[in-house]
Structure formats: structure tokens, C-alpha cells
Amino acid sequence: MYKSSLALAVAVGVLAQQAGAAGFIEDSKASVSSRTFYYNADTREGTANDQKETAEGLKFDYTSGFTEGLVGFGIDAQALVGIHLDGGKGHHPDNNSFFPSDSDGSAVDEWSRAGANVKARISKTEMHLGSALAPQLPILLANDSRLLPATYDGGIITSKDIDNFTLVAGQLEHSAGRATSNSTGLSVAGGTQDSNQFRFGGVDWKATKDLTLQAYHSELQDYYKQNFFGLIHVLPIANDQSFKTDLRYFDSSSDGKNGTTGYLFNNNGGYAKTPGEVDNTTWSAMFTYTLGGNAFLVGHQRVSDDGGFVYLNQGNVVDGNGSNEGNGGPSFYLFTDSVVNSFVRAGENTTFGQYTYDFASLGAPGLKASVSYLRGQDIKATNGVGPDQTEWERDLRVDYVIQTGALKGFGTTLRHGTYRGDTNIPAQDQTRLIFNYTYSFL
Fold first, then answer.
1. Cα–Cα distance between 283 and 159 in angstroms, integer?
2. Which of 74, 185, 340, 379 could covalently link to 417 via disulfide, CB atoms 3.0 to 4.6 Å apart?
3. Is the full-model pTM beyond 0.70?
């Protein structure tokens, strides 16, 4: 953390001397985003863990252009503020991922944090170094599904100098979760000791205009190593018809101290052949047929028997104030990352389907609706000898974005998820109502 902060301070000093250079100012962009979020999680089996809250999130983003010369330099900055609007004690469970808690168990009035990245560009290669990174990669998806986004501290290099290839490499050291002002080291679900080294590299190859192949490798020191391979193909059938194939495969194994005290992986609360260790392969296949405003999706996912799927999750690591609240609940690059559940425990076979309709074809551009259903079965019992378990989830979603007028770009999203199963996850009905608006003033 100290090295990253020092490098950032030095770079900012250099940029201050070059801020007048053409491109740095002219290509700058700045915006303020507002997100009003109503969150309701009803566990159905009692009220002890029910959650019902409303909050306002504000996000300021500044993105500079690049200075002139062989090597161009720039800076990106971000400030986040969360303001609690409603939902007192009794509707705000501890250790939740929506809003931080006060000492009496109620939500704090507000929380905030800020970060910045310096960047450099040579030809079509860019380097970003700082504390406001939000990678969107198969091996790590920065989460933005609650009030404010999660961010990471480290460095990422992306190159498009070779035609049809996108090369990515980097190292991350800390994370600031989606409901916290503080950062922690990196870990997995169940791990209480942090790792300050998540290294990764990968390539996206646009083999043809319709076919993309992906290969990535990542390592979280003392927790796991992971390889990913992906294929995305879109087959055009007619002007308003297409068939999309999306295949994903992960192979994960133990690294370093994984399996020892403090470096345990809880295997998503499920079975593990070797308790505490990472040992998993997971594959997913999704097929989407699009006809006009209709999109029909079907798919299947298989998690291997020896342990659950692994991904970065800092939910058990405490920050400098001795708290672990707001660090958990990251996203991951599988089709089963749903409103309530994840469907990623040992042995789980999940079949899923979704129907989406875009109302633009009926004269209502900006309005979309979807319904999806997932059913997981063959989930291995925690002790490995009990009967297999099953679970299912049904999700509904409606999105509308105003297309014209003074409120152009104002968006509304309504999501509802219903989860039931015979696992140790409680039945839950979850509703999210979100209003988004971004105002750009540069």
C-alpha cells in the first residue's frame, strides 16, 4: 500500500507540471452519478435477518486525457459518498453488504471514500496504477450491484498493439468493498488472513468478426491458482436474428498456505474433499437465440465434486478498524451469479433459462423486461455422505431508461429474486428498486 501511494504521489507531481499540455485538458471528462437504492431482503423463516433499507449513493468521476509525446500521462480520480435515508435498527443486520453499521447496530448516517489512478499510454498500450481500479475480467469482476462500487488497489496494463488481440496483465494488492470506507488485503470466503498479491495475465483474441477466444491465468498468493478458457461466437442468421454461444471453463487449485489456519477456503458453505483447500473445475455453456425484440437463453453449469468454485472474497478479513463489514459479496464470471444465490457448491449441476424482451420494437425504446429460472441439483452434502441437495431461484427484472428530454438517461431498474432449497441457505425473497442518473459536465 505504501509503495503504491508513493508512486501515485510522485506521478501526480509530474502531471501537475504537464497539466497544460494539449490533450490532457481537452480530452478530460467529469461526471456525477446518483443512485437511489431501495433494498428488501425477506428471509421468510423469521425476521431476525430481514433487511429493509433505502440509501442514496453519489459518485464523482474525473478522467483526464493524455499529455502529448511518445509517452502520454494522465490521471483518473473518483469520490464516493453513501447517505442512509431509511431503515432503522431491526431492518439493518450486521455484516451486510449494503450499508455500514454503527455501534448500536443501526446503519451509519453516511460513509465515503476517494481514490485515484495515474495512467500512461504508449501507442495502444495503457498502464493504470492506483487505488480506484475496477477490472472487468473473467478472473475478476469488480462488483457494482449495490449502492456504490467496489474498487481495487494495484496496477493493470492493457495492450491492443497487436491487431485482433487484447493483452492484459497486472497485480492487485488491496480491495475496498462496496459498503465500506476502508480497504483490506485480498482473500477468499472463509480466509481470515489477507494476501497482498493477486497476479494475473490473459488474452482476448478476435479470431474472426464473430468469434472471440479467451485465456487467462491468475494467482492469489497462499490461496489459489486459476486458469480460465472462454469462447464467444455469434452466428448471424438474418437482420433481426442471431444465435450466440458462450462457453466458459475454470480450473482452480491450492497455492502456498491454503488449507492451514487463517488461509482456509469455506468452499461456499459446501462439501470439500480436503476441507479448507481449493480444488475445483467448473464449466458453463450458454446459448442465446435472438429474434427481433425476443431473446431466448438456455444453459447448463457443472461444478466438480471435490470442492466449490473459488473467487476473490474479502468477507472474513478485517480492516484497520477491526471490522470486516462491507467487504464480501463480489461478482464472478459465471452465468449463475444471480440476485440471491450463486449455485457454485461442490457437485452442483445447474440448468438455467431466461427470456428477455426489448420493447423498442413496440415503440417503447429504453424499456426491457426479463424472467429467468435456475435449478441446481446433485449438491454434495457437507459431510460427503448425506443425500444430495437441490435449490432453485426465479428472478424478474424490468429496466427503463428515458430516451429524450431533460431527464434523458435517467434509468429505473426493478429486480426481484425468489430463492428456495433444502440447503443451509435460508429461503429468501429479495427486491431491489434502483434509480440511476449521470450528469456529465465536461
1. 28
2. 340
3. yes
